[in-house]
Description:
Blueprint: H1 2-5, E1 13-17, E2 22-27, E3 30-43, E4 49-52, H2 61-77, H3 80-83, E5 86-88, H4 93-105, E6 109-114, E7 122-132
Antiparallel strand pairs: 1-2, 2-3, 3-4, 3-7, 4-5, 6-7
Helix pairs in contact: 2-4
Amino acid sequence: MWLARFRIDDWPRWDYDHEESRLIFSEAGRAKVIADIVVVGTVDKDGTRWEWSWGNPNFPIAMREKMDSVRAFGAEKEWPQLTSLFLDNDEYLGWEMTSISHRLLDAEGAYRCPDNDEPGNFIYVLAFNTHFVN
């Protein structure tokens, strides 16, 4: 629904603003859609390891604090997948953890971005306060 509503797949470029915790979709150098984001977690370049953002000091503290409620829910329910900083990854794990986080944090949408120029590194994010830019 979020993808269709904001035509996410239509925009030829996206940029991740780490400091502002935003995802910006653009066309011809002009921002078209902006979303506040929370990083759920990352997958390493080998695709073998998932890391939750709540334990990664490279992400802004406000973002980690928001994700800490997912970890707390996992502790309450005794779900080790939500409380173990690193997990063995497969092709579905990132989306599964993002889906759980989406529900718990009442996000608008979810997106998977390449983390850098190396194939296989991914960042899974949740979108909030998404809006078109005129």
